[in-house]
Design brief:
6 helices, alpha+beta, 12% strand
Length: 116
C-alpha cells in the first residue's frame, strides 16, 4: 500500500527533508553523509529520515555497518498527479486583474460622485 498524500505532503513540508531529498537526487548516501551539512544531531537527522521513509520518499538499507539512503522518485508520482490537476487553469495575470479592479473602483467612485 502506498503512503497517503497527507503523509507525502507532511514529509515535504519541512525544509530539512526537502534538502535531504535534493541531496539524494545525485546518488545514494550514507546516513552520516546526509547529516554532515546540517547543524543538528545525528538523532535529529535520523528522525527526518524516518519520516521520509514512512512517506515512501526514500528507502534505507544496511550495507555492512553503514546505513544507506536512496531516493524513491516514484513515491512522488501520486502527489505530482494531484498537483497537475491544478495546472488546467490559466495563470492569473495579476496586473490585468489589478487594472480591472481599479477600473471598477473608479467607476463606482464616479457613480457616487454623480449622485452626491
Amino acid at each position: 500500500m502506498s503512503p497517503s498524500l497527507d503523509t507525502v505532503f507532511a514529509a515535504l513540508a519541512d525544509p530539512t527533508r526537502r534538502a535531504i531529498l535534493s541531496m539524494l537526487l545525485e546518488d545514494d548516501m550514507a546516513v552520516t553523509d546526509v547529516a554532515e551539512p546540517f547543524a543538528m544531531s545525528l538523532a535529529a537527522i535520523s528522525k527526518h529520515l524516518g519520516i521520509l521513509t514512512r512517506a515512501g520518499l526514500i528507502s534505507q538499507e544496511r550495507r555492512g555497518r553503514v546505513k544507506w539512503c536512496k531516493l524513491e522518485p516514484d513515491a512522488l508520482r501520486a502527489a505530482s498527479v494531484w498537483m497537475q490537476g491544478f495546472g488546467q487553469f490559466d495563470q492569473i495575470d495579476l496586473d490585468a486583474f489589478e487594472r480591472f479592479l481599479e477600473g471598477e473602483l473608479s467607476g463606482l467612485a464616479q457613480q457616487q460622485a454623480d449622485r452626491g
